[in-house]
Amino acid sequence: MNYYSRIAVPVLLISCLFTTQAYAPPPDILWYEVYGGTEEDYGRAVCQADGGYMVAAYGSSFGAGGDDVYVMKINEDGDTLWFKTYGGVANERAFSIKPTSDNHYIISGFTSSQGSGGSDVWLLKVDENGDTAWTSYFGNLTWDAAYCANETSDNGFIVAGMSTIYGYGDQLFLVKTDANGDSIWAKAYGGTDQDYGHWVKQTTDGGYIVVGRTYSYGPGLCNGWLLKTDANGDTMWTRLYGGNGEDLLYTVLPLSDGSYILVGGTDSWGAGLGDVYVVRAGADGDTLWMNWYGGANADQGQHAIITHDGNIAIVGYTYSYAVGESDVYLLKIDLNGDTLWTTTVGGIYHDFGYYLDQTPDSGYIIAGRTRSWGAGQSDVYLIKTGTDLGAAENEGRDISTNPTVFPNPFSTSANISFGVDSRQYSVGSMRIYDVAGRCVKSFDPLPYAQSPMQITWDGTDDVKNMLPNGVYLLRLTAGEHSETKKLLLIR
Questions:
Q1: In a domain, 255, yes or no
Q2: Where are the alpha helices (H) located in 109-238, listed in sequence order?
Q3: 285 and 203: one domain?
Q4: What is the mean pLDDT of the chain?
Q5: Distance CA 365, CA 356 (A)
Q6: CB within 10 Å: which end of the chain, N or C, has fewer?
Q7: Which CATH number characterizes residue 72's domain?
Q8: Are 262 and 281 in contact (CB under 8 A)?
Q9: Of 223, 214, 158, whose CA–CA distance to 189 is shortest?
Q10: pLDDT tens digit string along 66-102?
């Protein structure tokens, strides 16, 4: 297998990265790697694994024939530990990989080499070394594919995808299996046109929430589709989202209050030919708010996660803000849909992000594909970011009172108000750090006070030198507990 070395971060930042900031800086890019041969290869999903990462991909550079599924284990620096292919003489593709409760990994996709039809839903379970534990196939005599598989509370799996049924077109398809991959039930949903299930998750009531797209229902060419089922796959309710254009949903994130975040793409609304589309839906699927993100050209969200600090990180692609043809698009929003930061990564040709996970250091690992680098027509593309500084912002909030800063951003001075509650020690400290982690200003020691205290910072360091514009981190500490707040200095 061919793979290519990381390019130094300063070069990447100068030549390949465009950043649009809100009130927080995006994380730095630590490294990126490309993997592949001389043909078309795609990175589709990634998850954490023993301090490194497991990657699901597919392509035609390696394997038995046609497209084959690739699974590789890499370390935290992106170095390949092992690489394996799965498939036969026809085409196989993988679209998701997830860790399981028994320290294995479940991969979903389709196979045209095995099964009963043109292609079948393919569920593949492998161990930590990539050795096959079992495989399962589901489908009929036509075309079937799985786009997502998640473990359920009984250690089985719920699988979402599509199935072509004669007389009905492509239908959204769900399969529930036991822990060995044997089918418990399989059901199809949809009309006479094309309908797809892209993500499924078990809900707290034992049922399932499914998101996808439908060409059979709704006012537009295509509409986002959310389905709630019971534990047996019977429909409880469905909702449509979108306008008169083409609207797609690829991820559903259940929130603790029973609502859902839905992420995909829209060309019904927004600024350009297509935009990242986000909907927050209530527990009954009704729209609480919707928003879109992007520029004058085509942009789309492909996958999203809930971050360590309770916000939403989204990965996809952008033609609007790209250095080249298209770039990987990474953005973070809060639960009200407000943008926290955005960034793009890529070269002079086409680069796409398909999947992300948050890492223990509160950074992100992203899987996608690139035509800007590598040996082939398209290569597997992995990107590792540094720490998302917002991830630790609310650390210890249940212990320390929340500091407030006004104004923020500020130009001449900022008024910092805070208190230390009665559970804390009588002496605390307040320090201000730059984004490199250097303490530039110290207000030590701080006496204990029952009422809120207020300190004014004029944007200077400990020797009264004026500090440059930028983001600074306020760290309030009392005993073993601390809290962090971002400050933005703009003169």
A1: yes
A2: none
A3: yes
A4: 87
A5: 6
A6: C
A7: 2.130.10.10
A8: yes
A9: 214
A10: 889 999 999 999 999 999 999 888 899 999 999 999 9
Contact predicate 263/278, CB 8 Å: yes
pTM of the model: 0.77
Give the tokens for residue 96.
Answer: 């998701």
User: What's the angle, vertex CA 44, arms to CA 224 and CA 389, rounded to 5?
Assistant: 85
Q: Which of 169, 313, 331 is nearest to 251 (CA)?
A: 313
Domain final residue pick, 344, 368, 391: 391
Residues 124 and 240 in one domain: yes
DSSP 435: T
398/155 Cα distance (integer angstroms): 34
pLDDT exceeds cutoff 90 at 145:
yes
- Has residue 92 been placed in a domain? yes
Give the tokens for residue 185: 């039930």
Following CA atoms 346, 352, 354, 359 in sequence, which dihedral angle do they give, to the nearest 10 degrees?
0
Distance CA 324, CA 344 (A): 11
43, two tokens: 């990175």
* CA 310 remoteness from chain centre: 13
Report d(CA 10, CA 31) in Å as an integer.
10
Q: Is the pLDDT of residue 322 over 80?
A: yes
pLDDT confidence tier of residue 392, bands split at 50, 70 and 90: very low
Rounded CA gap, 250 and 265, in Å?
8
d(CA 383, CA 60): 22
Whether residue 41 has pLDDT greater than 90: yes
What is the C-alpha to C-alpha distance for residues 226 and 239, in angstroms, rounded to an integer?
Answer: 5
Give the span between the Cα atoms of 263 and 330, in whole angstroms.
Answer: 13
Structural domain boundaries, residue 345: 3-391
The pLDDT tens digits for 253-276 are 999 999 999 999 999 988 889 999
Task: Indicate if the alpha-carbon torsion angle 299, 66, 1, 128 is positive or negative.
Answer: positive
Report the alpha-carbon distance of residue 332 to residue 306 in Å, rounded: 10
Residue 396 lies in a domain: no
Give me 355's structure tokens. 């999947």
CB atoms under 10 Å from CB of 287, counted, come to: 12
Q: How many domains does the chain have?
A: 2
Residue 395 pLDDT greater than 70, yes or no: no
